[in-house]
Amino acid sequence: MQPDAANAPSRRLARVAGHLNPQMKEEGGAPALRPAACRAKGGAPGFKVAILGAAGGIGQPLSLLMKTNPLVSVLHLYDVVNTPGVTADISHMDTTAVVRGFLGAQQLDAALTGMDLVIIPAGLPRKPGMTRDDLFNKNAGIVRMLCEGVARCCPNAIVNLISNPVNSTVPIAAEVFKKAGTYNPKRLLGVTTLDVVRANTFVAEVLGVDPRDVSVPVVGGHAGVTILPLLSQVTPPSSFTQEEIKYLTNRIQNGGTEVVEAKAGAGSATLSMAFAAAKFGDACLRAMRGEAGIVECSYVASEVTELPFFASKVRLGRSGAEEILPLGPLNDFERVGLEAAKKELSESIQKGIAFMNK
Ligand SMILES: NC(=O)C1=CN([C@@H]2O[C@H](COP(=O)(O)OP(=O)(O)OC[C@H]3O[C@@H](n4cnc5c(N)ncnc54)[C@H](O)[C@@H]3O)[C@@H](O)[C@H]2O)C=CC1
Ligand SMILES: O=C([O-])CC(=O)C(=O)O
C-alpha cells in the first residue's frame, strides 16, 4: 500500500464521521447518524418512525422493539431527557433501522420532519391510589405540545397515542389537529392494544390454551369500566361461566392498576405496554405498506355509538383507520357494561375538548 493511501482518511469512515449529528454533540449528547445518508442497503426503503418520550419506561423498550422491526428504515428517538444515551445504546443493534436521537423542545421539529408514523408514550405514569384521569393536568399539555409539532412537521403521519388518560388525550390531539387544519380522523389512533394483550392472556389462562391462539375484542376506552372486553365474541368461540365472566372482566379492567400496585410507586406497565405498542405499530406499518385484512382494536373517532370517540375493531389500511367495524351482538352483561363505559367516556371526552377550547 502507498504511504499516502495509508494516511488518507478512509472514504467509508469519513462518510460515517461526517454524519455525526452536531446538535446532539453540542448538547453533550452522544453523536448520532443522519438517516438520509444511511439508508439500509439493498432492502426496501421502509418507513420513518418517531418515538416521542423515547427515554421513558415505555419509550426505551419500545425503541428497542421498533429497532428490530424490518419495516422501519429510520427511527427518531425524542425526549426531553436522556436521548443521547438511549440512542447510542440502541444504535449499536445490528438491525436495519438507522437511529437518530433528539433532545429537548428545540429539536422536536427536526425529530418529526418527514416521519410516516409517530408513536407517543410521553408523559407521567400513575402511582398507587391515582386514576388515569389524575394524570390529565400534566399530560394534557405535553400531548398538546407534541401534537402541535406533528401538525407543523409531519401532518400526514399516522399517530399512535399512548399517553394517559387516553380517553381524553385522543380528543385533545384531534382538537390540536383541527385547529391546525390538518385533522384526518383516520390518522389518529389511541393505543388500547394492552387491554387486548391482557385479555388474551387472562382468557387463555382460564381456557388452558396458548394466548397466541386467542383473540378478545376489547371496546370502549382505556380506563376502568370504559375497558369493555366482549367475552361473547372471543375467538375461538368459547363459553364461560358467570363467575368466570365476572373474574375476567374485572381483571382486564383493572390490569393497569394490578401493575401499578405491584410496582408500588415505581410507575405503571412499561414492558407489556412496549410489547403491545410494538405490536400495534407493526400492524399500522404493515397496513401502510398495503397488507390487507389487518384488524386491531383502537380508540378512534367513531360513529359506532353516539360518542365522538370509541375503541372498537378497526380495519387498518394505507391511510390509517380505514373502516370502523360495528360492535356486533352483545349479551345482557355486555350491554350493561356498555352503558357504564359510555357514561364515563363521555365525561373524559368532554374534558379533553374543553381543555383545548378554554
Ligand atoms: N395506553 C396505554 O395502554 C398505556 C399508557 N401508559 C401511559 O404512557 C405514559 C408514559 O408512561 P411511562 O413510560 O411509564 O412513563 P415514564 O415517566 O417512565 O416516561 C415518560 C417519558 O416521557 C418524557 N416526557 C415528558 N415530557 C415530555 C415532553 N414534553 N416531550 C417528550 N417527552 C416527554 C419523560 O422525560 C419520560 O422519559 C404515561 O402517561 C402512562 O400512563 C402506560 C401504560 C399503558
Ligand atoms: O394503568 C396505568 O396507569 C397504565 C395503563 O394505562 C395500563 O397499564 O393499562
Automatic annotation (TrEMBL):
NAD(+) binds at residues 53-59, 79, 139, 162-164, 273. The active site is at residue 222. GO terms for molecular function: L-malate dehydrogenase (NAD+) activity. This is Malate dehydrogenase. NCBIfam families: MDH_euk_gproteo (TIGR01772). Residues 48-190 form the Lactate/malate dehydrogenase N-terminal domain. Residues 192-355 form the Lactate/malate dehydrogenase C-terminal domain.
